[in-house]
Amino acid sequence: MPVSTQKSWHFVRLSMVLCWVLWLITFFISMTLFQAILQVRVIAQVVPTAEKGLHSFKDDYVQAVPMDAVSREAMDELLIRYYLEMRYARIPDVAEMKRRWGYGGIVAYFSTVAAYRSAHYDVDGLETIDGKTPIVVDIRYMQLRKDLKTTYEVILDLYESDGNGHWKKVTRNLTVSFTHVAERVFRGRNLSNPYGLIVTGVDDRKSL
Question: N or C, which end of the chain is more exposed by having fewer CB within 10 Å?
Fold first, then answer.
């Protein structure tokens, strides 16, 4: 066999070996990336922490949604629901109830002074709340009034435990009025009020 032919054949075999090596490297890289993609988790929770969008930062992911994607009406309803849960629910935990009902707490932050006082909380008596039974809130109906765009009509059920596995239900019809105040705009890691919503009044009527 001529020397030139042998060199050409060696070159072809070397090229084939290199191609196989490159193919194997590409295959293993692709499989590694595929396995990494399977580890990506999409978490359906967004916490507002920036001026122009909703962001949630954790150790293993970053998620962002433009603020325009959430309408003000939807955000208002969400915060009113949260407010009513904080206002009416009760758990036998002193620290948590002080965080909710205490001076400067969540209910106070989302309320005017008059709306906060209308709840008639015994703030000084919260030290004994760990001896009381829980109250659970179930919002059955919530609708923004057509004539008043800053008022919600709400029907909620309050379930209070008797401590023996039974629950007493009380239904309340509420008229919740609110407005937006620039001074109440707040964006934090765990709690945000992006449009400065504040409850101005709660007309609470117990159903018969």
Answer: C
